[in-house]
Amino acid sequence: MSKLDIQNLAKSFGDLQVIKDLSFSINEGEFVSILGPSGSGKSTLFQMIGGISLPDSGSILIEGQQVNGKRGVISYTPQTPSLLPWRTILQNVLLGQEIAGKINKEKALEMIERAGLKGYEHVYPHELSGGMKQRVSFIRSMLSPQSIICLDEPFSALDEFTRLEMQKWLLSIWSEYKRSILFVTHSIEEAIFLSDRIIVLSSKPATVQKEFIVPFKRPRLEDLLLTEEFLQ
Ligand code: ADP
Ligand code: MG
């Protein structure tokens, strides 16, 4: 059974049909990218998968169960993820676990350290750079109990150097945690670098145009070690 099944999804805003007859599925532990130009309906799709908005027709199934309009079944990080400004970094990281009622503070502290954020546990988000906030929001996703992680263009606002380091970091965490990841991007390069499989959306209305397996292996993890300066 597929981990996530999208079946014949359709969504319009007034006269504008954004998504039409969109179907695809992802398997356990797979890293799948949804690739499409700006305005092709990627965020609209994610909002439906995240239960934030309802499709006009079609189904979203997780392990065979329909979840249309249900929040909290997947871990969804919107295009502009926001850390809660009144909570410290540690408290922000623990949020996903708190909602699930199962807190593992030690694991959270360990992940914060691995993300190069040791010493920042008790500071507030405004003291962090963009890349650091991005890492905090990933840690939160990775520590939340949901087995499907949906990330909407998490790196598009970062400079190229930071983006590459973040991509490597995401891959190393993903290979360890083995979650199913659905990753939205408008960068062909990024999709090829990160994914097992790429789903290309046609624009307006979005429907799957092409679906292909990335035809070569990712760089080996040993080659993906983060630069020490970056983690200082
Ligand atoms: P992408 O994430 O691929 O850049 P979006 O899903 O954000 O694309 O938007 C797809 C299209 O739907 C755009 O033309 C956008 O203007 C339109 N759209 C998105 N959300 C709404 C909304 N709430 N109301 C009206 N139009 C919307
Ligand atoms: Mg978008």
TrEMBL record:
<keyword id="KW-0547">Nucleotide-binding</keyword>
<dbReference type="Pfam" id="PF00005">
    <property type="entry name" value="ABC_tran"/>
</dbReference>
<dbReference type="GO" id="GO:0016887">
    <property type="term" value="F:ATP hydrolysis activity"/>
</dbReference>
<keyword id="KW-0067">ATP-binding</keyword>
<dbReference type="InterPro" id="IPR017871">
    <property type="entry name" value="ABC_transporter-like_CS"/>
</dbReference>
<dbReference type="InterPro" id="IPR003593">
    <property type="entry name" value="AAA+_ATPase"/>
</dbReference>
<keyword id="KW-0813">Transport</keyword>
<dbReference type="InterPro" id="IPR003439">
    <property type="entry name" value="ABC_transporter-like_ATP-bd"/>
</dbReference>
<protein>
    <submittedName>
        <fullName>ABC transporter ATP-binding protein</fullName>
    </submittedName>
</protein>
<dbReference type="GO" id="GO:0005524">
    <property type="term" value="F:ATP binding"/>
</dbReference>
<dbReference type="InterPro" id="IPR027417">
    <property type="entry name" value="P-loop_NTPase"/>
</dbReference>
<dbReference type="InterPro" id="IPR050166">
    <property type="entry name" value="ABC_transporter_ATP-bind"/>
</dbReference>
<feature type="domain" description="ABC transporter">
    <location>
        <begin position="4"/>
        <end position="228"/>
    </location>
</feature>
